[in-house]
Amino acid sequence: MLEETFLHRDAIPLFVQLASKMRRRIVTGEWPPGHQLPTLEQIGEEFGVSRVTVRQAAERLEREGLIWRHRGKGTFVHDHSTLRRNFVVNATWRSFIQSLEGMDPAVLWVSETADPLVSSVPEGHLAPAYRSFRRVHCREGTAYSVTDIHLDDRIYQKDPERLLNSAILPILDAMPEVEIASARQEFTIGAADYPAARDLGTLIGTPVGEATNVVVDRSDTVIYLANIVFRGDLLRLDIQFTF
Fold this sequence. Notes:
This protein has helices at residues 14-27, 40-47, 51-63, 93-100, 153-156, 160-165, 168-174, 194-200; strands at residues 67-70, 74-77, 85-89, 106-110, 125-126, 130-139, 142-152, 180-191, 207-217, 221-231, 235-239. It is of the alpha+beta class. The chain has 2 domains: 14-77, Arc Repressor Mutant, subunit A; 85-239, Chorismate lyase, CATH 3.40.1410. Strand 1 and strand 2 form a beta hairpin. Helix 1 crosses helix 3 (51-63) and helix 2 (40-47) crosses helix 3.
């Protein structure tokens, strides 16, 4: 089915609608990395909008880091192929752990005290208190995901420095005193809110992938809860089928 090119004259600004359609062409590969975009006039004619509307849409995508403009030559799609994060669906625990090794996150903030967790969890029961922190993951200087983590404070106290600055799940997996009984990951598609847009360097409302990871130990206690937001343009789902 061909994409509809017309825009609706409704409450959503035309340049926002146009930016969404242009973004989709970039994310899906219709406009691949290095591709030169049509001129403002050509885009305006295709979608039936003014040159000003096209310029506003292009400026929005440029601020998101999806395109760049070269004076006198035109507008081009950024090459983010080396920054894309493969998000493996239906992975084994071992392959998932291996995919996390070597990460170098930056801590944005960490709670000064351990506090009870007020949010609900899909399984298990809550630990007495959690240490909460927010981290951002970057590749080549570009933030591709931001994570809010709640870690059982009894585990956090064993090695705070390492747990704050390294991938946590491989550490938990290797701890002899921690017995992991189950782990689950739920993935959805959403839109960036203000905190996510701020930390990912994108705009409010841009597409993002949202994952929730829950790890439960042998005592049926949730020892790790993470809410992850991925930049949609730097995310690729890798669905593996097993036989």
